[in-house]
Write a structure and sequence with these properties.
about 425 residues; mainly alpha; 19 helices; TPR repeat
């Protein structure tokens, strides 16, 4: 009987001793939970609890009996994480963050699953700290530092669209193109609200690294999901032309037209191929030797005519199609400008030829006029539309409308 009594007393003593040893740890846990519950609704009432939690966890961390418990590290990570989050001075908040991060790493190493909720909460706090830190660094133009901060945030929340987007943006602006590509590519797999823009952005990064193959694949993937996206289609055309793949992209569009002959966008895209090809010939024409100019001029003229045919078909389907009106005006202006410039290069002793050329240019300018005016009517804030119209007025030497259009352009938002 005495032995049994002694055993009960011994067990009671052991339990009481263990409880005493964990008293500071339990206080820290309890006070932190009070703080966490009050911090949003009543932050002033919450702060004393956080101060008590810090005092208690420091004692628990200094006690050899509790110093290496996973719970101690988990609570310490939460407490110091909260202190870092509240501290707006980077020189004093960062040491608190580092203390919290070290404690979190030890908690993860030692925990068997009993402190998962506390560990997850600490991770969220530290991720939020790094996110806020990254925003300040990004705004200060410290993109390399912002990338590291956002990447910490992203590693905690790998499926969070904001975390991935911020990391991608900071990587791009710090010219860390591989990381930018990785994160933009990840973002295309997530439910991002502006997914259509991602493919153009990602293609631009590939182009910045001179990887036209990667850029074209990205655009192709984007068009599978967003077949009517004009920016993607335009970029596809531009990249294809850079790679000398005019026939391939034109064949693709022509095949699409055969399957969907009432799709105005397809005719517009075909027009883009032809007008871009014409512009390319025009650029070559500037530096070409005299012997090669005629062939390039013929190529430019032929492609401008084909572009006009395609834009005309798009406008037959939708007369208010802004982009088609804009580009139709542009391709019709092109021969007028060529004729006008050629007239002005004639020697002074060829007055008759000059007058004939100017009359021809005036007629050509007037063919473009309805489309130029329509484009401005549809989008009066378009700099491209207004500049095309300005070119028309200059060709017609209409000084009153030149001044008026210049004023409209000057009034556009910068």
């Amino acid at each position: 009987m005495k032995i049994k009594f002694l055993m009960v007393g011994l067990l009671g003593l052991i339990s009481a001793t263990c409880f005493a040893q964990k008293g500071e740890l339990n206080t820290a846990q309890s006070e932190y939970e009070k703080y966490d519950g009050l911090k949003t609704a009543q932050p002033k009432l919450a702060m004393p609890s956080l101060d008590k939690a810090k005092e208690a966890i420091d004692k628990a961390a200094a006690n050899p009996k509790t110093a290496n418990l996973p719970q101690t590290y988990a609570v310490k990570a939460n407490v110091y994480g909260a202190l870092a989050e509240l501290d707006t001075v980077s020189t004093t908040s960062l040491p608190k963050f580092n203390t919290a991060a070290e404690a979190l790493a030890k908690a993860k190493e030692l925990d068997k699953g009993d402190n998962k909720k506390s560990i997850d909460n600490a991770q969220s706090i530290l991720a939020a700290y790094q996110s806020n830190k990254g925003v300040k660094e990004y705004q200060a133009g410290k993109y390399d530092l912002a990338y590291k901060s956002f990447d910490y945030y992203r590693n905690v929340f790998p499926e969070d669209t904001n975390a991935v987007l911020y990391t991608a943006l900071a990587a791009y602006n710090s010219k860390n193109y591989p990381a930018a590509i990785t994160n933009y590519s990840k973002l295309t797999t997530l439910k991002y609200s502006k997914a259509e823009t991602l493919y153009s952005d990602l293609a631009s990064i590939y182009l910045a690294t001179k990887d036209t193959t990667g850029a074209l694949k990205t655009i192709t993937d984007g068009l599978v999901k967003f077949p009517n996206n004009a920016d993607l289609r335009r970029t596809e055309i531009e990249i294809s032309l850079q790679q000398g793949k005019q026939k391939e992209v034109l064949d693709k569009i022509t095949s699409a037209i055969a399957n969907d002959p009432k799709n105005k966008n397809l005719y517009y895209y075909a027009g883009l191929v032809y007008s871009n090809t014409a512009d390319d010939a025009g650029q070559k024409l500037i530096k070409a030797p005299a012997a090669g100019k005629a062939a390039l001029q013929a190529e430019k003229t032929q492609n401008m005519q084909k572009a006009a045919e395609m834009y005309k078909k798009a406008l037959e389907i939708d007369p208010n199609y802004f982009e088609a009106n804009l580009n139709m005006g542009y391709v019709l202006l092109s021969p007028a400008i060529d004729t006008y410039n050629a007239a002005n290069k004639l020697p002074a002793n060829q007055q008759k030829a000059y007058e004939v050329a100017v009359a021809k240019a005036n007629t050509q300018f007037d063919v473009a006029k309805p489309y130029l005016l329509k484009a401005v009517e549809l989008n009066p804030k378009s700099a491209d539309a207004l500049n095309n119209l300005l070119t028309y007025y200059k060709g017609k030497r209409d000084n009153a409308n030149i001044a008026k259009t210049n004023a409209l352009i000057a009034a556009l938002p910068q």
